[in-house]
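Exercise: predict the fold of this chain.
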Amino acid sequence: MKRQYAEPVLPTPPTAPTKDRLPGSQTHRDAQDRADAARLPRWGPKATILEAAATSGRFKTFGRAVETAHLDDMLNEKGPFTVFAPTDEAFAKMPSADLRALLADSTRLRALLSSHIVASKVRAPREQVPNTASAIDGRTLTMSVRQGYYKVNDAQIVKTNLRASNGVIHAIDSLLLPS
């Protein structure tokens, strides 16, 4: 049985091309936007590291700390970056007075967070093959798989390879404190 439509579907009449209009009532800007979108891989993430961290909902304290330490401009650049981001639970392990003092001191916070950021893309390690990376503060981070868990130094990686357009995030269960 054929379906009856309330209004007949008529083809749109062709429009004459003008300087700023292309055939089919499409502006030059629309065509450019469509061409740009076609060049981008459809499967790639569109959000930056900070946007991906914010949408995950696990890094509210980390996001606030990055803004306080004025590292947000760097993490919105092209990258690639790897961020070993402490979850909200990792920050909750600190005594509240210490956490408040840390969040109020932007210099100390910047020094601490700089040891969580690597200026290259570092994927999760493989079994029996530890790898190292240098954080932006020069500290060496060692990633390994121990007893079935991903580790970076002494912190456990609770979620690996959260992709972003300018890098990757690894969620960790504690802060990477200087030794």
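Check your answer against the key: DSSP finds seven helices and nine strands in the chain.
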